[in-house]
Amino acid sequence: MARTVSLKAQQRSAVGRHRVRRLRAEGRIPAVLYGRKGHLALEIGAMEFVEAFQGRETEKVLIDLLVEGTEPSQQKLAFLQAVQQHPLTDRILHVDLHELSADEKIHTEVEVHPVGDPVGVRTGGGLLQVPLRHLRISCLPHDLPESILVDVEALGVGESIHVGDVAPPAGVEVLNPKDQVLFTITAPQTEETPTVQEAKEPELVRARKEAEEESKE
User: Is 6 within 8 Å of 64 (Cβ atoms)?
Assistant: First the structure.
């Protein structure tokens, strides 16, 4: 399942370019949390944010967000919608968050990874082709997988695994057409040996030889 990180945020009153620049200079990231009932301006500690997401695919991480500065403090579930970074320094300039409901399904994409060494590659010399690297899925937030693993060990040359052949994790519905190909083993390509053709005498040379022979007669 997708990982969950805990993050604290403060409700932000600073708006406008000048005040936002000062906020960044203080080591804070301006952020906005979007939800069904509107949006909420926030600020998040830059170091805390970087440490929370270091080495993780941000779109597959749920955020257990504590919003302080409100009465009372609010606990929310969210995921990253967009991260704006400086083009030269990669410094994070702004973050957009999307509020989730724990009992409401989300639609997103996850990566698909083959597991095992296919018999068609191991003994048949075939090539494993992966025409589809992501699957569209629907699930509750806490059922969101980081990826979907597919066993390709028994796949032989000329055989394929389709979307309909895959059993998704519990609570996950795959939205792709069932006949889409996920993995297939293609036959090895054989190099054609060029045939040696007998060199033909140029027409002009042959005609000249025939003329010389006729003059000798």
Answer: yes
Per-residue pLDDT, 58: 60
Contact (CB, 8 A) for 116 and 152? yes
Position 70, amino acid: T
Provide CATH code, domain 3-100: 2.40.240.10
Below-50 pLDDT ranges, the chain? none
Question: At residue 42, what are phi and psi to the nearest 5 degrees?
Answer: -130, 170
Alpha-carbon separation of residue 169 from 31, 101, 106, 110, 174 (angstroms): 33, 20, 15, 12, 10
Q: Enter the DSSP assignment of 188.
A: P
Residue 36's contacts (CB-CB under 8 Å, 6 or more residues apart) are: 99
Q: Domain 106-186 belongs to what topology?
A: RNA Polymerase Alpha Subunit; Chain A, domain 2 (2.170.120)
Q: What is the pLDDT of residue 110?
A: 92
Give pLDDT, residue 118.
Answer: 96
- Alpha-carbon gap, residue 211 to 213, rounded angstroms: 5
In angstroms, the CA 2 to CA 137 distance is 13
Q: What are the sequence ranges of the domains in the chain? A: 3-100, 106-186
Tens of pLDDT, residues 90-121: 899 999 999 999 999 999 999 999 999 999 99
Query: Where in the chain does DSSP place strands (E)?
Result: 3-11, 28-35, 38-45, 61-68, 74-85, 92-100, 106-115, 127-129, 134-139, 147-151, 160-162, 173-174, 181-186
